Amino acid sequence: MTDLSAAPSWRRDLSIDQQLALTTAATRLAAEFDGIYGTETIERFLHSSYDQFAPASIPHFLPLLAERFARQRLQALARVEGHHRDGKPVVLFLCTHNAGRSQIALGFFTHLAGDAAIAWSGGSEPGTEINTAAVAAMAERGIDISGEYPKPWTDEVVRAADVVITMGCGDACPTFPGTRYQNWDVDDPAGLDVAAVRPIRDDLERRVRALLEDLHVPAR
């Protein structure tokens, strides 16, 4: 792995287990992207993804979060660079904290589209955890978003998207020429209880279903 001597202090203090976990993650990613990206690119994306979450996240989960985020970013980059062409539409849901609205929308989109489309989410100022009321409200619909996590958007992820849905991030939301943007005026569920989140959830479901229809993706 990359020499950590010039890294931030929290990375120089990585435990043996964390270093081993990152090494294992790099090995898995290298196998997944074999023939597309080399070791240097894999490690650069993995380490920069790790940097996005530390030191705010629970250390035990950092390597896993970094691997998941690095995988998403590498998948996006492969699409941008033309290494991956499957014809599936890609949608990116963005809000401020990537803890409520964008996660609910992502949950519905993934559940309804299945393998027919791809969706990602991100935030301009990512929070530290998913909104628990949003998790509970989605569980009422049989959709589990508890395994998701707030994360930032990155250039390659935005550039890979065919449609970018923004919700409340304003001028902080990224813009790239040639990308289709829609702004959804949806209330923020932050600080609300489950009863108050339900109308927001239902509004987002309607919007996601309309989006799928517009993309000619049949809802399951």
TrEMBL record:
SUPFAM superfamilies reported for this sequence: Phosphotyrosine protein phosphatases I
Gene3D superfamilies named in the record: 3.40.50.2300, Corynebacterium glutamicum thioredoxin-dependent arsenate reductase, N-terminal domain (1.10.8.1060)
Domain of life: Bacteria
Keyword NAD: no
Organism for this UniProt entry: Krasilnikovia cinnamomea
UniProt-recorded name of the protein: Protein-tyrosine-phosphatase
Gene Ontology biological process terms, A to Z: response to arsenic-containing substance
Keyword Cytoplasm: no
Keywords (A to Z) from UniProt: Arsenical resistance
